[in-house]
Specification:
This protein is an alpha+beta fold and 209 residues long. It is built from 4 helices and 11 strands, in the order ααββββββααβββββ. The protein has helices spanning 2-26, 29-36, 110-118, 127-132; strands spanning 45-56, 59-70, 73-79, 85-92, 95-99, 104-106, 140-144, 154-159, 169-180, 183-194, 199-208. The longest helix has 25 residues, at 2-26. The protein is globular and about 45 Å long. One of its GO terms (cellular component) is cell outer membrane.
Length: 209
């Protein structure tokens, strides 16, 4: 009987532990951040997905994207509409790695590496703040919406470029905001690039998570 009681107690503890793990798995930090954070600058853990189009003078490319932000770390996955991976970019404590179907690459300047691999000018380290429109005048010239439902939100942003190797001119336009939890977040972003290769990157966000 004592052994049977000990086995019964052990099994009860195991069941309780599994239940707690399942409960914690259902309540993710990401969802809680979006539903409880009222200050956009405090939103440091989130996911965002949608579609993007890269339009250049001689071609247009479209894809699905999935962005995961976890404090300073991030991961960007870009797939074709057929589900074929175009590239995956990941930053963690080891640095930044961009992986294509052929191999993995590392570089201290991820936007330069991405341009070399894809022809897209997209400064990965800046996307965290660009997605959220969490910007300030020290980063570039900003105009705000003044007479619409998004009063006080960023309308256009022209970044100061030396810190991340901009082309000749970059302009970002925010065309659509929607309420997500206690925040009002962008759902349509256009990045116009004027340099040796002109391009327009149009980002349509499907959901914030």
């Amino acid at each position: 009987m004592p052994r049977a009681f000990q086995l019964y107690k052990y099994l009860c503890n195991v069941v309780l532990l599994i239940a707690l793990l399942l409960q914690s798995g259902c309540t993710t930090v990401t969802s809680k951040s979006l539903t409880t954070t009222a200050n956009i600058s405090e939103l440091t853990t989130f996911q965002v997905n949608g579609r993007l189009a890269v339009i250049q003078p001689t071609k247009k490319q479209s894809a699905y994207f999935y962005w995961q932000q976890n404090n300073e770390d991030y991961k960007l996955t870009v797939n074709t509409f057929l589900g074929i991976n175009v590239f995956t970019a990941k930053r963690d404590k080891q640095g930044i790695t961009i992986t294509t179907s052929e191999k993995s690459y590392t570089n201290s300047a991820p936007q330069v590496l991405l341009f070399e691999l894809t022809g897209w000018w997209l400064p990965l380290d800046e996307l965290n703040s660009w997605f959220k429109a969490d910007l300030n005048p020290s980063q570039g010239d900003i105009t705000m919406y003044e007479s619409s439902y998004v009063t006080g939100k960023v309308k256009t942003f022209t970044p100061f470029c030396p810190q991340f190797s901009c082309p000749q001119s970059v302009s970002i336009t925010y065309k659509d905001y929607r309420n997500v939890g206690q925040l009002t977040l962008p759902f349509s972003i256009t990045v116009d690039v004027d340099g040796d290769i002109k391009q327009s990157i149009r980002i349509k966000i499907k959901e914030w998570l």
